[in-house]
């Protein structure tokens, strides 16, 4: 029998649709503190304290965002995130960890997480990250533009990328970086611009993380598709 999930509902009866968040965090005091704060921000928040239950809730529930700790009993956050992505769930995931370092960040993002926050963190920063992820998700829910550049085709609503006739599987962050380049194809897009649009202004990690994702895109797509403009940024070539 599964343990009951803790539900936190915002005060008042707003008529607009309220975003639903799931917190998967085994530090109960931290989880309940975050839930209380985010509820005050107007979100409906559910809390669970282990990885297996978090995976179950995220799979069965209709959430707009998951805040997922990495060090969890049952299943760790990496495995929960990877399982959700493998099952086709595109819910935004913000990973929390007490670890620090590029290896941990790369591993977390490569499993399909959308953002990463190292403890201890500022609550104001966490709220900014949550709002940025929800805003990007909302922007993707409108029209379904398909961008075609030579043999590269990108559907920003279905979140699918094709090179010639082959579909290319990208992580959430890889897709977002490519999207910024596609939307400004032929122009130079600076590293700070990519960080601002993909990681948002509150990102405090290594800005060289952009290079990591550009390198991954080159491996998955075609080496010459994304050009480095030294000292300026990156440019997606428009020629086939």
From TrEMBL:
Q: Which InterPro entries match?
A: CheY-like_superfamily (IPR011006), OmpR/PhoB-type_DNA-bd (IPR001867), Sig_transdc_resp-reg_C-effctor (IPR016032), Sig_transdc_resp-reg_receiver (IPR001789), WalR-like (IPR039420), WH-like_DNA-bd_sf (IPR036388)
Which top-level group of life is the source organism from? Bacteria
What organism is this sequence from?
Streptomyces hirsutus
Q: Which UniProt keywords apply?
A: DNA-binding, Phosphoprotein
Q: State the signal peptide span.
A: none
- Name-wise, this protein is Response regulator transcription factor
Tell me which residues make up the Response regulatory domain.
Answer: 20-134
Question: Which stretches make up the OmpR/PhoB-type domain?
Answer: 144-238
**Positions of modified residues (4-aspartylphosphate):** 69
């Amino acid at each position: 029998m599964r343990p009951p999930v803790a539900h936190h509902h915002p005060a008042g009866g707003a008529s607009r649709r309220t975003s639903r968040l799931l917190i998967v965090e085994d530090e109960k005091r931290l989880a309940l503190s975050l839930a209380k704060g985010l509820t005050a921000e107007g979100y409906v928040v559910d809390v669970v304290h282990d990885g297996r239950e978090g995976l179950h809730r995220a799979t069965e529930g209709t959430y707009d965002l998951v805040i997922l700790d990495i060090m969890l009993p049952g299943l760790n956050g990496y495995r929960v995130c990877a399982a959700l992505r493998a099952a086709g769930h595109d819910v935004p995931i913000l990973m929390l960890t007490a670890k620090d370092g590029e290896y941990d960040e790369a591993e977390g993002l490569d499993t399909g997480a959308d953002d990463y926050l190292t403890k201890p963190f500022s609550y104001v920063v966490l709220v900014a990250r949550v709002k940025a992820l929800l805003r990007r998700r909302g922007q993707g829910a409108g029209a379904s533009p398909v961008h075609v550049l030579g043999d590269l085709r990108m559907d920003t609503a279905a979140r699918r990328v094709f090179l010639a006739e082959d579909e290319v599987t990208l992580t959430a962050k890889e897709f977002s970086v490519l999207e910024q380049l596609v939307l400004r194809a032929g122009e130079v897009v600076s590293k700070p611009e990519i960080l601002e649009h993909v990681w948002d202004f509150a990102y405090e990690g290594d800005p060289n993380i952009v290079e990591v994702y550009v390198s991954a895109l080159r491996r998955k797509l075609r080496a010459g598709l994304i050009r480095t403009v030294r000292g300026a940024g990156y440019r997606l070539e428009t020629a086939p």
